[in-house]
Specification:
By secondary structure, this protein is mostly helical. The chain has eleven helices and two strands. Strands 1-2 form a two-stranded antiparallel ribbon.
């Protein structure tokens, strides 16, 4: 844990303001309180406030200009690949259309990641996927968390792809999966399908890129169909 008080205050203010913006407390085009007003409202220093404003600007939520103040930017400007921004959005009761968009991104990435894993995965990579699958099986008996185990499996496949760009998306996909998987499992009335995940592992272990691609695509097609049926 970071023990730097300034850092902690800056992050807390960034988190509080980011949440407030995402939840609509401050509308697009609205002005936020001035830095001086934020210092008073949140009882933080001017330097911590200034850093928080910089962080939110970098995430695309606001723009701060001299003599014009701080303005909230449209959602189209927000950096959806920033895990803080994504966490704030997902904690604010995201729409089905957003979950659909995210699942479409997964469908564009994860089948290909599995296909690459079937070619590139090391022995250690396959071990990590196997561990995640074991956790999924144990979760059926109440011995592990089903959501965490499911996410671990998908992240392990991404990392096994051996593609540095796909691997960089692990944190983004892991963050969004916390809501996405929870929604699809709740709608289906069951936890993640262990057998279908086992099929993905088998195709990777057998070094069959086409079947690995198809196995992951099958799961994501089902998720998209489920979301579309409820839109």
């Amino acid at each position: 844990m970071n023990s730097n008080p300034k850092h902690n205050l800056t992050y807390q203010l960034t988190h509080d303001l980011g949440n407030a913006i995402v939840k609509g407390k401050y509308k697009v085009g609205d002005g936020l309180p001035t830095e001086a007003e934020l210092c008073t409202e949140y009882d933080v220093s001017r330097s911590a406030t200034r850093e928080a404003v910089k962080m939110l600007s970098a995430k695309g939520l606001i723009v701060s200009r001299p003599k014009k103040g701080i303005r909230v930017l449209p959602e189209s400007n927000w950096n959806m690949f920033d895990t803080d921004v994504l966490t704030w959005i997902l904690s604010s009761n995201p729409s089905l259309s957003l979950l659909k968009s995210f699942t479409e991104v997964r469908a564009a990435i994860e089948p290909q990641a599995a296909a690459l894993a079937a070619t590139n995965a090391t022995f250690e990579d396959i071990e990590e996927i196997e561990k995640a699958l074991t956790r999924m099986k144990q979760s059926e008996q109440g011995l592990d968390d089903p959501l965490d185990a499911d996410i671990s499996f998908h992240v392990a496949v991404l990392k096994a792809s051996g593609n540095c760009f796909i691997m960089q998306l692990s944190e983004f996909i892991s963050t969004a999966l916390k809501v996405s998987i929870r929604y699809t499992n709740k709608t289906k009335g069951e936890e993640g399908d262990v057998q279908k995940h086992a099929d993905i592992l088998d195709t990777i272990k057998s070094r069959n890129p086409e079947k690995a691609h198809h196995a992951v695509k099958t799961i994501l097609d089902e998720a998209l169909e489920l979301i579309n049926s409820n839109l």
